[in-house]
Specification:
single chain; 101 residues; mainly alpha; elongated
Length: 101
């Protein structure tokens, strides 16, 4: 009984249970969001300006979802994909701002 309490306390003290490893389903979900960023990229970078702001925000929503998925698992590749998605979001927002000038 003492061991169980010690283990429970150590998990609580360290912030809870460790994150699970990423599964195929996690990466499929990440890939769907990356595909969404791909879909809007041409519009943001080369398309009609009126659509650029909305498409940039769609890219950023996809990036946020990638990061939410990444935060649910213990996987370096998922974390890197979050960083990359956020960088793409920032680039898309910058392109939309330039378009609006």
């Amino acid at each position: 009984m003492k061991l169980a309490r010690v283990l429970a306390w150590s998990l609580f003290a360290c912030g809870g249970a460790p994150l699970p490893p990423a599964t195929h389903a996690h990466f499929e979900a990440i890939q769907r969001q990356e595909a969404r960023q791909d879909e809007v990229e041409a519009s943001v970078l080369e398309g009609p300006c009126p659509d650029a702001a909305d498409d940039a925000e769609a890219s950023c929503a996809a990036a946020e979802r990638v990061c939410e998925i990444s935060a649910e698992v213990d996987d370096r590749d998922a974390a890197l994909r979050c960083e990359r998605a956020r960088e793409r979001c920032a680039g898309h927002r910058a392109a939309a701002r330039r378009c609006a000038e």
